[in-house]
Amino acid sequence: MEKPIYPMRINKYLALNKHSTRRGADELIIDKKVFINGKLAVLGDKVTEKDSIEVRFRGKQIPYLYFAYNKPKGIVTHSAQGEEKEIKSVVALKDVFPIGRLDKDSHGLIILTNDGRITDRLLGPNYLHEKEYLVKVKNTLRSSFKNKMEAGVKIQDEKTAKCKVEIVNENTFKVILTEGKRHQIRRMCEALFQEVSDLKRIRIMNIELGKIPDGSYRQIKSKELEKFLHSLELG
């Protein structure tokens, strides 16, 4: 095979690299599927050996799916070790993954999706989205607990952000966080001399757990989905 001579016409380049025939290459260009250095190619363009050529075949786009899943206790979010079970092995949904984490001993709402766009928008430190939890502790809550929790709690060398707390009864409260440090609620409670006995996530932004049974899920759609994506600046 003779050595290619540059610059050469884009249709010849595509034919030499077995993307199509020259006529077929022209059709790809007309269909706006060929890019030179990230810019849309036009008929008659010439390329050099240093140019980056892409042919983007736009097949049928897979629709984005979103589900609200009630993770039971004892199931890890992902990266199971030993005999542990993780979400993808117990949920009868294909090609979706969990956004964020809930530790093994906690339960409640996890969003499952195939839309990778929402990971950073929901979890990134530059975005402050509400997540609500129902928490039970072993002992009676101290009278100062609400004020101290809401003001932020010092954990080792850092202080948590302010949050909202609603006391439900003498050993149960709801808390709304806009950050997600590892085991944050458990560590905040320990710092205030309370030991968590049950931790359940009941809301992420406008998505509520509601009455989804343990280990079950429901699809997020219609206006609920529209509001969720709009809040993430994706819709």
Please give the CATH architecture of the largest domain. 2-Layer Sandwich
What Rg is obtained from the alpha carbons, in whole angstroms? Answer: 26 Å
| Whole-number tally of structural domains | 3
CATH homologous superfamily title of the largest domain: Pseudouridine synthase I, catalytic domain, N-terminal subdomain
CATH topology of the largest domain: Alpha-Beta Plaits
Please describe what this structure looks like.
- The protein contains 7 helices and 18 strands.
- By secondary structure, the chain is of the alpha+beta class.
- The protein has 3 domains: 8-55, Structural Genomics Hypothetical 15.5 Kd Protein In mrcA-pckA Intergenic Region, Chain A (Roll), CATH 3.10.290.10; 60-125 and 212-235, 2-Layer Sandwich (Alpha-Beta Plaits), CATH 3.30.70; 130-204, Alpha-Beta Plaits (2-Layer Sandwich), CATH 3.30.70.
- Strands 6, 9, 10, 11, 14, 15, 16, 17 and 18 form a 9-stranded mixed beta sheet that branches.
- Helix 1 (10-16) packs across helix 2 (22-30).
- The radius of gyration is 26 Å and the shape is elongated.
- It starts with 7 loop residues before the first strand and ends with a helix.
- The model has no long low-confidence stretch (mean pLDDT 90).
